[in-house]
Amino acid sequence: MTTDRRALSLSRPPMRAGVGLKPEHYRPILDDHPDIGWFEVHAENYMGAGGPPHYFLERIRADYALSVHGVGLSIGSAAGLTSGHLDRLKTVVDRYQPFVVSEHLAWSTHGNAFYNDLLPLPYTRATLDLVARHVDVTQEALGRRLLLENPSTYLRFDGEEMGETDFLAELARRTGCGLLLDVNNVFVSAANHGFDARAYLDAFPLARVQEIHLAGHETQHGDANMPTLLIDTHDRPVADPVWDLYRHVLARLGACPTLIEWDSALPTWPVLAAEAARAENLLRASEGADHARAA
Amino acid sequence: MRARPETSAAAAQQAAFAQALLHLDAPTPAGLTTYSEAEAARRFAVYRNNVRVSLVAALGARYPVVRRLVGAEFFDAAALLFIAQHPPTGPVLANYGAGFDAFLASFEPAADLPYLPDMAKLEWLRHRAFHAADADPIGIDRLAMLPPERLDTVRLALHPAVQFIVSPWPVLSIWTTNTEDDEVRPLGPEAGSESVLVTRPALQVLTQRLPAGADRLLAALADNAPLGAAVAAAVEAEPAFDIAGCLALLFSAGAIVGLTEGSRS
Questions:
Q1: Domains contained in chain A, CATH given
Q2: Complex ipTM tops 0.90
Q3: What residue stretch is flagged as signal peptide (chain A) (predicted)?
Q4: Do the Cβ atoms of A86 and A117 come closer than 8 Å?
Q5: Does A3 touch chain B (CB under 8 A)?
Q6: How far apart are CA A202 and CA B255, in angstroms?
Q7: What is the pLDDT of residue A278?
Q8: B184 touches chain A (CB under 8 A)
Q9: pLDDT at B265 over 50
Q10: Inter-chain touch A112–B21, beta carbons under 8 Å
Q11: pLDDT tens digits, one per residue of A3-51
């Protein structure tokens, strides 16, 4: 296992709040140079040959730390990874030198078709074997550790053999991968499947977590026959109960790079920056607590 | 890679899931935790909706003028049909949407807008130019410095973003008024066929009218023909071809990035 050696070569993660980088904000960022800890990009948006995406990302990367978040590797594909996409991901990672690279515990490709969504996997030993093989291949190809994110889900499968936290803990143990804890996804999945979000977080292998995501979700109200369903929409502010869960995580984990994910119905830059500042205040408070614990 | 037994079971499950995502009349896949039938359908519909809405939005962003011309409702319906027939073949969505022009050309409900496929083609070329490789355009002074007797054998390299479309419709005029004007300007009877050059010399994609014959010149240059042969092809198609005017247009549009002399190819 060479993962530990790789980890040493990574640039130091910023213990700060970051935001997802959107083309609408390229100009305000370059013009005003806001005090934001870091930016995250979707790897697939920077796989073109040239043009404005690379022009702006090069300039923003020169001044800020960066995280690369893949949304298309389909690491849970039963039919295997597409090596071409792994090569493209490596090209982006090598070029922009992010402090972390992450992907999702999900699948999105089948046959020759890409479905542009993060589709659910049954938590079985067979799925664990499959995903672990793909994480190994990916880490080998990238030459560095991958973080895997807990998904938001709407369905579960018959015949599942373990819970999501056990699945992720065993996957991290086998492959040496890190984890990206999406607190909004925990809240959404807990509501949709009727489990307790705090109990989930208390069972989560927090020692493996190297990044946190926060985002907004939509509430689809039910009726007498249908329970309320939460949809992971990334199109609004983080909900209050998700902030509460975030505090709960920070109290146990300490400071951790935290991203505000806002991908559609984009707010103006000041609104997004204020959301990041809110996360950063909590994060700094937990850092203070770290020092107090260490003293 | 050899298929492992557990992997092929998982593959079958993903195949069924995938099939039902794109086809509204397909039943909800089997093997889901026992919800009521309506509840399983409602939950599956979240995924189905994510796939369809996100891909329709991707096409809408790629084809804004087509969308404006036909209206949002018509566009979304056409896009859904296109997506079901031609889902993305890879995770880089910037590559998605090729062939929408051909789809529209055979899409019966759009038959009364015969210029629609060419508009889709123009928007696709603009999109390709946006993501094309970067290169630094050279000025026409580089050509002017050459002695006239060497002009015939010189080869001009096109910028990777350079593309063109020859349309029997006033495709650029329609594009321009639908992009720049709040109220679409009606086109007069003088508006006829248009050939359009697409370039991206720096960050911005540019479009402009090409004179008659210029498409032949560009096609020859793209084939690495020397300038003399490229001009001859243009003149053959258009005896009144304005060589100097066309070259001035190409250089000022940032379409030329290299100039080599001699027989190297």
A1: 3-294 (3.20.20.150)
A2: yes
A3: none
A4: no
A5: no
A6: 60
A7: 98
A8: no
A9: no
A10: no
A11: 443 343 346 789 999 999 999 999 999 999 999 999 999 999 999 999 9
In degrees and rounded to multiples of 5, residue A17 shows phi and psi of -90, 145
- Geometric angle at alpha carbon A248, from B47 and A177, rounded to 5°: 60
Look-up of token digits 């296109």: B82
Closest chain B residue to the Cα of A86, Cα to Cα: B91
A227 to chain B: nearest residue by CA?
Answer: B39
pLDDT digits (tens, 9 = 90+) for A89-144: 999 999 999 999 999 999 999 988 999 999 999 999 999 999 999 999 999 999 99
User: Is residue B121 in some structural domain?
Assistant: no
Residue A202 touches partner B, C-beta closer than 8 Å? no
- Please name the residue that has the structure tokens 């409900």: B109
Number of independent structural domains in chain B: 2
Domain holding B40, by residue range, is 1-113
Angstroms from B41 CA to nearest CA on chain A: 10
Residues in B touching A54 (Cβ below 8 Å): 134
Please report the sign of the dihedral spanned by the C-alpha atoms of residue A179, residue A285, residue A12, residue A18. Answer: positive
Give me the total of CB pairs closer than 8 Å, taking one residue from chain A and one from chain B.
148
Residue A126 and residue B7: Cβ atoms within 8 Å?
yes
Tell me what pLDDT residue A64 has. Answer: 97
Same domain, B100 and B220: no
Residues B80 and B143 in one domain: no
- Type of residue at B7: T
A153 touches chain B (CB under 8 A): no
Structural contact between residues B255 and B157, judged by C-beta atoms closer than 8 angstroms: no
Do residues A290 and A255 make contact, with C-beta atoms less than 8 angstroms apart?
Answer: yes
**Residue in the block written with tokens 């700094």:** A284
B11 contacts A79? CB cut-off 8 A: yes
